[in-house]
Design brief:
The chain contains 14 helices and 7 strands. By secondary structure, it is α/β, with parallel strands linked by helices. It folds into 2 domains: 3-81, DNA polymerase, domain 1, CATH 1.10.150; 91-333, TIM Barrel, CATH 3.20.20. The chain has a 7-stranded parallel beta sheet.
């Protein structure tokens, strides 16, 4: 492995383990700092002691570079590779998951380029990955206008063409507006492979109005997945947030009627829907999508958490659209448009 590969993999494992962003970025910064140097040039710097002159390298990252140049797996990386699984259960279901319908890049509020998200998805044995950056109303997350989304589609197509046996699919996490409309033009939504619709604002809306809002979004022929339906936060740096109030039976009946999958959001701070709502969605006959909502490459392994929750509710794998092969997935996602 090259020094850049070693540094990048360390960043992945740290991110997967929810290390601080400062620690993760130290290794990504180091990988960028040496990215234009050949192994020979790096070896010369190690030999003459000038590796310390490269801005962005610290003691630990210099040790990683030196070990990789010697053809060794750096000790720090080897220790990280021995990390325990993210979840204690759900392994059989996790093995059936083929892809992920909800992830973000640096086009909105993600931390990495589309190319890097795709590269890690391939490395983690995904058959497909959907890029679902935010829509324009979510300005705090640099949501995509129709023009920016159109440009992103070209980038996704270019990256997808670079891979065999893996599909990088186009998508959006579209904001559900106060009246239940979707925050993107119908023309652009028609062009996407997958549309995840989520509520991000006015989470304390009165229950009957929130119910109407979500039902209208589910009824929109572009909606494929209802994202993190309650909006709750149960832990993490952003603090906690109670779940929004709505008639869950009515919302899930609408999802079942309009063939919309209910997302099991795998982020540890979300754990959304709560367990009782997963049971309600099951009883309503809903499909499910186990998604990471990854905002960085290391978070793509969060599928482990979602699989454990779904397995705890004995959800039939065939009702989980992310177990489906890509052809079946796309036939379903495009059927209503």
């Amino acid at each position: 492995m090259t020094p850049v590969e070693a540094l990048s993999e360390i960043a992945f494992w740290l991110e997967r383990g929810r290390a601080s962003s400062h620690r993760v970025e130290a290794f990504r910064t180091a990988a960028t700092a040496i990215g234009d140097l050949t192994p020979g040039q790096l070896a010369e710097r190690v030999a003459d002691g000038t590796l310390t002159e490269i801005k962005g390298l610290g003691k630990r990252t210099r040790e990683v570079v030196a070990a990789a140049l010697e053809g060794e797996v750096p000790t720090y990386l080897a220790d990280l590779r021995d990390a325990t699984p993210l979840a204690d259960s759900g392994h059989d279901l996790r093995a059936l998951l083929r892809g992920d319908l909800h992830s973000h890049s640096d086009w909105s509020d993600g931390g990495s380029p589309i190319e890097e998200m795709a590269r890690i998805a391939v490395w983690r044995d995904r058959e497909y990955q959907v890029i679902t950056d935010h829509s324009p109303r979510l300005t705090i997350a640099n949501g995509l206008s129709a023009d920016r989304l159109a440009r992103q589609l070209d980038v996704i197509a270019e990256v997808d063409a670079q891979h065999d046996g893996f599909h990088l699919l186009s998508g959006i996490e579209v904001d559900i507006l106060d009246n239940g409309a979707l925050d993107q033009t119908a023309e652009m939504l028609d062009r996407l492979d997958v549309v995840v619709a989520s509520v991000h604002s006015k989470l304390k809306m009165e229950a009957s109005q929130m119910t109407k809002r979500m039902v209208r979004a589910a009824a929109d022929p572009h909606t494929n997945v209802l994202g993190h339906c309650t909006g709750r936060l149960v832990e993490g740096g952003r603090g906690t947030r109670p779940q929004s109030q709505f008639d869950a039976e009515m919302v899930f009946e609408a999802c079942a009627l309009f063939d919309v999958a209910v997302e099991i959001n795998s982020r540890p701070e979300r754990q959304d829907p709560p367990d009782d709502l997963i049971d309600l969605a099951l009883d309503a006959g809903c499909l499910f999508a186990i998604n990471t909502d990854a905002h960085a490459p290391g978070q793509l392994d969060f599928l482990d958490h979602g699989a454990a929750r779904a397995a705890a509710h004995d959800i039939d794998p065939d009702r989980i659209v992310t177990t489906w092969p890509v052809d079946r997935l796309l036939e379903w996602s495009r059927a209503k448009r």
